[in-house]
Design goal:
Blueprint lengths: L1 E4 L3 H18 L1 H16 L5 H37 L7 E5 L3 E5 L4 E5 L3 E6 L3 E6 L4 E5 L6 H18 L27 H15 L4 H27 L1 H29 L9 H4 L8 H5 L8 E4 L4 E4 L36
Antiparallel strand pairs: 1-2, 2-3, 3-4, 5-6, 6-7, 8-9
Length: 350
Amino acid sequence: MEIEFQCTENDYKNFYKLHYKNEFQKRIIGFFLLSLLIGYVFAGDPFNLTKFFYGVITLIFLLIMGYYIVPYIVAISKMKKLIKKDPRYLEKKKLVLTDEGLYFETTKKNSSLKWESIASINSNIKFILLFLADKSLYLIPKRAFSTDNDSINFIGIVRNRIEKNNNRIKATPNTSNKKPPYLLGLLCLIPLIGAFVGLFFIILGITRFKDKWFTLIGVFGIAFTVIIYSSLFYASKNLSFFKSGFKELLQKELNNLVKEIEFYKMENGKYPDSLQQLTKDNPQIFIYDPIQTNQSKTNNKFQYQNLGKQYRLFSSGIDGIPNTNDDLYPQISEKIIDKVGLIKYNIKHK
């Protein structure tokens, strides 16, 4: 078999564009499911649809960059360096199949490739790629063949001779022989940071190392962070240990608020109309109910009502409903209760 061809820089660009596009499409379902998972984590609880879409779109963008655009740019950059170093890549060539290998003729120099020096042969709808043992390559446009059957026969002959003479594993462009750094997977055990490390592992595992175990470590890193934070979120809302911790913090903040409200009256001659007035001069004053904040309630401030010469102040408790049995109140000494405007609870529970 004998063919003549000549490649341009655009041919190399089109080849890599098709190559990485095909590789991305093979894994698009996995990428989509991973994006949904990360979007769900970003959405939080209660579920925020806007954050969910931001999370999904951001991860899809990162995957496209990491698996398609960046590898494509790197491959083109390496190809340009090879062409600059060896202009024969762009010369017109005549290729002849022989029993010993492939024989190339150019206007300046003739060369031959033994079957043992050819690592693999790959193709897409427009090109055939010969990847050599020294990591150099030959790109052959399919337009050089008279018919599709000729290109198919050429690929079949070359592939058969490679397997027969070398018994090599199929290689692909930009494949690294280095072993993946599995020990770095220990970073995946660090909550939150492990999720970002896991994403990095997934991208490298698919694009560079093409190693399923390295990729699975990345998936584990993301899953580990999701499990840890989901467990903490569940525990903070349902376990009595966490609830008691919030109650202790809440009680302390309620007692401090009484002091701040009384100090406000000393300076202004009246009690504040709302708790927000306390924070105008001192933003450090804490007016938010820890229990309501933890449960992501919309109304997450302490309950406060200005009654003129007196005021009411309390927490709505676990149920978030004012004036029920689980409401919590400031703990004020009986010695000073009559000296402050705080009204002790005197309304019947609902």
